[in-house]
Specification:
two-stranded parallel sheet; 32% helix; single chain; globular; 178 residues; Rossmann fold; 5 strands
């Protein structure tokens, strides 16, 4: 459980670090203002996969820690910006996940980017999670990741790609807004 929370926090932290505007870049990055960095996610908080519910709570606690501590610059948060963490319950239902992805996409400003990560199919370690911890989840390959963005109108999409990373253990969907 702790390892899964650490992985989730590490993934979101890595995504936050890739936002150029978060560290005073020359251009304004959607989701990043002078005061905040907005990050969102979809998680199974209820239903048969509710055992994953502690993950976004752990991430919230970590972001609260980051927001409360002072960095080397003497400012709280990330260079004085507070992380705003929003997450939604997809109730372990792919149709609900697609609807919530649309909700997150609507929150983006023009040229904003929606990034969704999902455990990939064929992960060797999944046997342990399912057999010993009774943790079951939806596994998707890059092709299946596109279904999450199915409700986003084509006219709103500037670019869309899906790929695997972490040795094929994680599938990603990246959708950029026009």
């Amino acid at each position: 459980m702790r390892k899964l929370i650490v992985c989730g926090v590490g993934l979101v932290a890595a995504l936050a670090l890739t936002v150029p505007g978060a560290f005073g870049g020359a251009t304004q990055t959607p989701g990043v203002t002078n005061r905040t960095i907005s990050i969102g996610g979809l998680f199974p908080l209820t239903g048969s996969a509710a055992v994953y519910a502690p993950i976004p709570s752990g991430m919230k606690a970590y972001f609260s820690y980051i927001n409360a501590r002072k960095g080397p610059d003497g400012k709280r948060g990330v260079n004085g910006r507070q992380i705003v963490w929003k997450y939604y319950d997809h109730v372990f239902n792919p149709a609900t996940a697609a609807q919530l992805a649309l909700c997150l996409f609507r929150c983006l400003k023009p040229r904003g980017t929606l990034v969704i990560a999902n455990l990939a199919r064929g992960i060797r370690e999944v046997g342990y999670a399912e057999a010993f911890m009774d943790w079951h989840t939806v596994y998707r390959d890059p092709r299946e990741m596109f279904a999450i963005a199915a409700r986003i109108p084509e006219a709103w999409i500037a670019d869309r790609r899906a790929f695997s990373a972490q040795g094929g253990r994680v599938s990603f969907l990246i959708v950029k807004r026009t």
